[in-house]
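Sanity check

After download, print the first record. It should look like this:
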Amino acid sequence: MSSKMFFGSYLAGLIEGDGTIIVPKQERSTKGKLNYPSVQIVFQLKDFPLCQIVQKLIGHGSISKKKNTAAYILTINNIEGLIVLSNLINGKMRGPKYYQFTLLIEYINKKCPNLNMKPLGFNLSPLESDSWLSGFIEADGSFQVRTSLSSKYPRLSLSFELVQSRVTRYGFTMFTIMENIAIFLETNVKEIRSDRKNPQYRLRTSSLKTNQNIRDYLVKYPLKGTKYLDFLDWCKVLSYFEQGTHMENTAHIVEIKSQMNQYRTLYNWDHLQ
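Expected structure tokens:
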């Protein structure tokens, strides 16, 4: 995690998945109060240790509990912290939040003209070349085990899902980056919740090959939050599918599923050491 290259790409993915880059249009509010830019990253309550690690590695920021939700927010809004953060993720962003990032750099250059920081453009390297997707999945991915055993034809299935709003809060589409991820994993992007206020894109792996694709990537670039523990359990089930022994190991698969995701009660943070 402390490797600068791994952390920078991972952090860029984390921000693009569950972060917000806020750059005020006016230097002062109508009441004359100074407006400051900020970068905010949201973490689930159970990922508080990860939130602390990210704060420590950036070396700046404050953590607050988000009202009425099960989440913490890491906020970086001091100029030194924004400079450090910008240097970490510059050249590593792949999605439309890059446009907000360029506005942040503009702000930094106005405040610190000697810096002359330049935005390095979108990261167009292959997804398998860095940890960006790991950070993005940390924010919005999920590992699913389905056990339909009470029906006439008992069925077990395994999938990984990634869901994003179709449009960012600043009006940019998320389709291109979702399609790039889908192509990498050899699956498709689907439109869901079309009749809702916030329609979404979803990609899902479901075949043995596509599940192996995401497994192989995340072995190379590991997750860092509690989702890593769900991934390890999911991989145990995947190994049964690879061996063709999943139906005869139904009881163990049901047991594994009963302790994953929202049902997890035991947390081990050794992977963050």
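If your output differs, re-run the checksum step. Summary of this record's structure: The two ends are 9 Å apart (CA to CA).
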